[in-house]
Amino acid sequence: MSVLLKTPKSIKETRVAEAPKEGYEAYLYKYTNLDNGKMYVGIHKGDYNDGYTNSSTNEEFSEALADPNSNFLYEVKEYGSYSLMTVRENDILTIGRGEDKLLYYNKTNGAPQFKVPDFDAVDFLINRVKVGYYNITMMSRDSLEGLKFLQVRTEEHSELKKDISQSIDEALGDTSKCEPIIIFEGRGPNGGDMGGDGNHTHSGGMESKRMAEMPVIKVPFKDNKNYSMVELRTFANEMNAPAEVHKNPASKDDLKKQLLNMVVDAQDKSVLDDPSVKRWLVDKMHVTKKKATGLILSAKSQWDKDKGVEADKYFRTYTDKQFSDWVNKYERGNPDGIVIPINSNFVKYDQIMRDLEMNLQRDKKGELLDPILPEKRLLTFLVRHKSSTHVDRWDDTLSKNLKTTIYPYLKLLGMKPTIVVLPSQVFDEGILKFTKEAA
After folding, report:
1. Strands 194-197 and 148-149, bridge-based pairing
2. Which one of 4, 202, 226, 229 has the fewest beta carbons within 10 angstroms of its own beta carbon?
3. pLDDT, tens digit (0-9, with 9 covering 90-100), for 202-255
């Protein structure tokens, strides 16, 4: 049992977890009133022995802690970055206060600085799929033709696709033995559907000359809408866990890519220090604890090395000069409109508003006309991805925020916006993919 340098006289017992040798930015602590079982959970940025006690505004707690006759247990439970501690505090209080709010002196659940994928929610959805909650139906070749999939693989397995194609042809087009393709309704481009699992099965089927239809499981939008793209990718990876021998399992690079996506989504590598991440790798993806630690360290190192630019040899990037050339190209091809360039990882709204202001009509004195009118009514937001790991955050959050924030203003001006994402995310067998999102 460790003894703190400064503690209230009501603290009759202390327990301090061993601090990491490499140091820490913050810690999570807990007070337990041994007289009635009530608890207070908090975090602090600094050393656990710097004299800090708590920041509670609960008068009942403050009075009990100040009473030397009270009996409290004080514990330092966890260490890490401050941002991670905000998440851990929220995890503990959300569960604890959800079960019995009266057992906690805390008035709120805290304010987490980033979101850790909800692995329990992912497991819930996977279980629904596996137990047959969603019906297996048949989808025609025409409907399957343009289906896009979540990119969770770092490489294609052409032999697997070839085997699937040949098996279907040899069965005279019978696809009943194929694993159903998992489809998330409403999560694709422009509100269309998105393939979540079964990319190789789909590709093999499309290569078959005899395939007329394939089995699919559709997860309705109402059941998937609250899942982030990172969580849907987690779903796809977990569906291909190594224990499932009937599929080509997720590779080390696939898992590292998933970890990098988590970091980009949180914009903080501390997300990988959350205990649930390592548990997911060990319990669900069936890697050893040692390998899980290595994967996490490797993903952090990659993030530190190039700030999220994943080492993906298939990813196409654009230099500032190349991006500028694309902007000029769109301006020349659209003389009746303006072009505003955007980096997909960070939308500068102040710059957008300045560009829009420059497009407003003015009189000879430089004053805005009344009513306010634009010089050009067509607007193209030209977007570049500087990293393959920026794609999900753009699709899932930033592009939607752009529409919510700017589009109402553009409507008042009578302008018609279009979002164009430069070609493109990934090279796939020599063919460039393009994405264009209309207003």
Report:
1. parallel
2. 226
3. 988 999 999 999 999 999 999 998 888 888 888 988 887 654 333 455 678 788
Question: How many Å apart are CA 39 and CA 289, to the nearest integer?
Answer: 32
Q: Considering all CA atoms of the chain, what is the largest pairwise distance in Å, rounded to the nearest integer?
A: 83
**Beta pairing class for 181-184 and 194-197:** antiparallel
Q: How many residues does the chain have?
A: 439
Asked whether the predicted pLDDT for residue 54 surpasses 80, the reply is yes
Determine the average pLDDT of the residues in 118-143: 93
CA distances from 412 to 357, 371, 372, 376 (A): 13, 11, 9, 14
Residue 199, classified by CB atoms within 10 Å of its CB into exposed (0-12), middle (13-18) or buried (19+), is: buried
Query: Which of 87, 119, 188 minimizes the C-alpha distance to 396?
Result: 188
Q: At what angle do helices 199-207 and 158-170 cross, to 10 degrees?
A: 50
Distance CA 28, CA 73 (A): 14
Work out the number of other CB atoms within 10 angstroms of the CB of residue 318: 16
- Positive or negative CA dihedral for 345, 350, 353, 357? negative
Query: Does an H or E element contain 162, and which?
Result: helix 158-170
The sign of the CA dihedral 389, 393, 399, 402 is negative
